[in-house]
Design brief:
It is a single chain. The chain contains five helices and eight strands; from the N terminus they run βββαββαααββαβ. By secondary structure, the protein is an alpha+beta fold. Helix 4 (119-138) packs antiparallel against helix 5 (169-184).
Length: 196
């Protein structure tokens, strides 16, 4: 699965507390992501990740987000990225070169099990996938569909990675995502972030 030569580069994100670590290997199948807000999250059956738990070993790491080919770390405010980037990159490079496990997940967590969904929900997911997700991922985060209330026209989305707690995520959600969604899916009246 992993190549022997690991390359990692970093990208800053709109959230000054988050940094995106991009790999030349696939960490997860496309479209999957896991968000960890504490070390215990990495020990749960549904998203068991020795890598996430190990990254929380750095005392300044406050959140770990893992998706297809990158990891986004969110740090404590008092720590400067300039002081920590080299150490984190070296640690990640060694971790992958030693072929240590990223995940220890049951097969059911990796399989795609979508229940039957309405035409409107399918269209909402399509707009998120084609137009919103690439931009959010380029900023070190992820967005996924959570729910749609047909009566109120409210779509709830999950923001993960650098988007969680980002100062500009609320503005992006309202001015960008909501405007696009209401234009492309007339049944949608509002877009809100779940759990933010």
């Amino acid at each position: 699965m992993l190549q022997s030569q690991i390359h990692i580069y970093t990208e800053s994100t709109p959230n000054p507390q988050s940094m995106k670590f991009v790999f030349n290997v696939e960490l997860l199948p496309d479209g999957m992501s896991f968000d960890y807000t504490q070390p215990a999250d990495g020990l749960t059956k549904e998203k068991n990740s020795p890598l996430a738990v190990a990254l929380f070993g750095f005392d300044f790491v406050k959140r770990v987000f893992i998706t297809s080919n990158f990891v986004t770390l969110t740090k404590a405010e008092h720590v400067l990225w300039e002081d920590e980037l080299f150490g984190i990159k070296q640690y990640l490079k060694k971790y992958f070169e030693e072929k240590r496990p990223i995940f220890s997940l049951p097969e059911s967590a990796i399989s795609d099990s979508d229940a039957e969904e309405s035409e409107v929900i399918a269209k909402i997911k399509e707009v998120l996938e084609q137009y919103v997700k690439p931009a959010v991922e380029s900023d070190g985060g992820a967005i996924s569909f959570y729910s749609f209330d047909e009566e109120s026209g409210q779509v709830k989305v999950l923001l993960q990675g650098s988007c969680s707690g980002c100062p500009s995520s609320t503005m992006t959600l309202k001015a960008g995502i909501e405007a696009l969604m209401t234009r492309m899916v007339p049944q949608v009246k509002e877009v809100v972030a779940e759990g933010v």
